[in-house]
Amino acid sequence: MCVLSLVHLLYPLEYMFPVIPLLPAYMPSAEQLLLAPTPFVIGVPASFFAHKRIKEVPNDVILVDLDTNHVTVPDDLFIPPLPEPDVSILKNSLHAALNRMSMTLHDERRGSIEACYAVDADIVDVSCRVAMVKFFNSPNVFGDFSEHTRTLRLYPRPVVALQSESFLRSRPQCTQFITDLCRTQAVEYFAECCLCPKNETFVRVQAGIDSPAQIGDKAKWFSESLMPVHFMVYPNDSSLCSAYYAYSRESGGLESDSDDNESRSLDSSSSIDDLVFDGPDEGTGG
């Protein structure tokens, strides 16, 4: 679940490489997947390395231990830092969303903390997604992204080219992170999706709307605003209505006839039993 959550948090970008939520430790030669020549995101249980007797991971693999909150990065692997102040805003937004999972209510009348309650997890989920979308739309990342794209073809499939040089020059801070990111295949797909975005929620977040009641997909947020639609399947004076009532009467009569037939068959079977089988007190004549 953690692996899938990480991949989905990249929206509106799409991870273009293999993703394995959980690699079984007892799968034969499973450790060979760690030597794949392509980028990957693979989840492994804590017993994986002990079971496979792996003492060291490959020197190009970043290991994230969720049990100890520890990240192991190889010495010869450089990860460019995220641009500031955009990453600080992202961290604050994520911390604010996660802190809402357990909040305390202060009762001023009693002068003490009254109770702790858990906030709706769906609201926290929407807040985290909104924080990520706002980060990608920040000035130092993908702000005004569509102004630096050129449409080469619309049909049968859109083809959009990113003018990377003008895009990088327009960044307030042209960092190594955005320089490497804009050359990935995920950004090419992102440019095509931005041409005609189909996700209404993404469009609303870009417009500055972040209320779960307006961008959420749960019925509890918008069911009260829906208007019921009352309609009649068929009018009472239609031939379909007459046929339905006639069928109901006939089926009711058939059911009563079947009940009578069953009772008569039971009576006849009991009389046959009396003729064929002797009673317990009856004897045979000699």
TrEMBL record:
<dbReference type="InterPro" id="IPR039980">
    <property type="entry name" value="MADD"/>
</dbReference>
<dbReference type="InterPro" id="IPR001194">
    <property type="entry name" value="cDENN_dom"/>
</dbReference>
<dbReference type="InterPro" id="IPR037516">
    <property type="entry name" value="Tripartite_DENN"/>
</dbReference>
<dbReference type="InterPro" id="IPR043153">
    <property type="entry name" value="DENN_C"/>
</dbReference>
<keyword id="KW-0472">Membrane</keyword>
<dbReference type="GO" id="GO:0006915">
    <property type="term" value="P:apoptotic process"/>
</dbReference>
<feature type="region of interest" description="Disordered">
    <location>
        <begin position="251"/>
        <end position="286"/>
    </location>
</feature>
<keyword id="KW-1003">Cell membrane</keyword>
<keyword id="KW-0963">Cytoplasm</keyword>
<dbReference type="GO" id="GO:0042981">
    <property type="term" value="P:regulation of apoptotic process"/>
</dbReference>
<dbReference type="InterPro" id="IPR005112">
    <property type="entry name" value="dDENN_dom"/>
</dbReference>
<dbReference type="GO" id="GO:0005886">
    <property type="term" value="C:plasma membrane"/>
</dbReference>
<dbReference type="GO" id="GO:0005085">
    <property type="term" value="F:guanyl-nucleotide exchange factor activity"/>
</dbReference>
<dbReference type="GO" id="GO:0032483">
    <property type="term" value="P:regulation of Rab protein signal transduction"/>
</dbReference>
<keyword id="KW-0053">Apoptosis</keyword>
<feature type="compositionally biased region" description="Acidic residues">
    <location>
        <begin position="275"/>
        <end position="286"/>
    </location>
</feature>
<comment type="similarity">
    <text>Belongs to the MADD family.</text>
</comment>
<protein>
    <recommendedName>
        <fullName>MAP kinase-activating death domain protein</fullName>
    </recommendedName>
</protein>
<feature type="domain" description="UDENN">
    <location>
        <begin position="1"/>
        <end position="201"/>
    </location>
</feature>
<dbReference type="Pfam" id="PF02141">
    <property type="entry name" value="DENN"/>
</dbReference>
<dbReference type="GO" id="GO:0005829">
    <property type="term" value="C:cytosol"/>
</dbReference>
